[in-house]
Amino acid sequence: MAHYTVETIWSRGDQKFLDSRYSRRHILRFDAGLDVPGSSSPHVVPVPCSDPEAVDPEEAFVSSLSSCHMLWFLAIAVKRTFIVDHYQDKAVGIMARDALGKLAMTVVTLKPEVHFSGDQRPSRDDIDQMHHEAHEECFIANSVKTEIRCEPVYGDTIG
């Protein structure tokens, strides 16, 4: 069993608090000591109480799904001896009311574009299968009830 630790640090400082106009900006400190600026989403709490340049929980959620999928995809490509040169995902999360009427991230759509090189290049079917396997293996995706879609972007990325 592995343990993952993240610190979330916020301090009021000299701000008023009871008027609800305090800054939601905070620090997300990861186990390696990396500090990432965090905030509430400006879609939820208006600026200036939110910082649009900081990572909000909704973005972090979408990012964790995208990152996990990519890492599994790369591992699967290596096993199949496909050389990946570049992987870029423009993932989108949709916040809406769920079946119980609660606000939730209801759909996350991954839009990975993968570029390959080398003598052996995957077909579209190979790529689709690798994305399917990556989705099945991604433990972040396996941990949430959000619908997660994968819509690979194809161009001149395959042989």
Summarize the structure.
With 159 residues, the protein is an alpha+beta fold.
Structure description:
There is one protein chain. The chain is built from two helices and eight strands; from the N terminus they run βββαββββαβ. With 159 residues, it is of the alpha+beta class. Helix 1 crosses helix 2. The protein is elongated. The mean pLDDT is 94.
CATH fold naming of the largest domain: GMP Synthetase, Chain A, domain 3
Count of individual domains: 2
CATH superfamily of the largest domain: K homology (KH) domain
Major sheet description: 3 strands, antiparallel
How do the helices and strands line up, and which of them pair or pack?
Elements: E1 6-9, E2 26-30, E3 35-38, H1 57-79, E4 83-89, E5 92-97, E6 103-110, E7 112-117, H2 124-137, E8 147-150
Parallel strand pairs: 6-8
Antiparallel strand pairs: 1-2, 2-3, 4-7, 5-6
Helix pairs in contact: 1-2
Name the descriptors.
single chain, 159 residues, alpha+beta, GMP Synthetase, Chain A, domain 3, 2 domains, 3-stranded antiparallel beta sheet, 2 helices, 8 strands
